[in-house]
Design a protein that fits this description.
about 80 residues; mainly alpha; about 30% helix; rod-shaped
Length: about 80
């Protein structure tokens, strides 16, 4: 493939049919990559403790389960 002689010549060649080209968002967070997913960015201090998706999910599930445990009031608590 030859490199162009003139660096200021950015015109497309006539053989390119732009009507057939799709406009696609690029990058990690493009809509087609996020479809059906929740993307959350964690701070670097958090990623030290939760390096994988699985570890984050496990910790969040643990918190959800802990939140379902009913709290006992001091009146209900009877020391043995």
């Amino acid at each position: 493939m030859k490199t162009p002689n003139n660096n200021d010549d950015y015109d497309l060649r006539d053989e390119y049919d732009l009507t057939k080209m799709k406009i696609v968002a690029k990058g990690r967070y493009a809509p087609h990559r996020r479809a059906g997913k929740n993307v959350v960015l964690l701070d670097s201090d958090i990623t030290d403790f939760f390096p994988t998706d699985e570890s984050v999910n496990e910790a969040l599930r643990f918190i959800i389960q802990a939140a379902k445990i009913p709290f006992r009031s001091e009146k209900e608590f009877k020391p043995a």
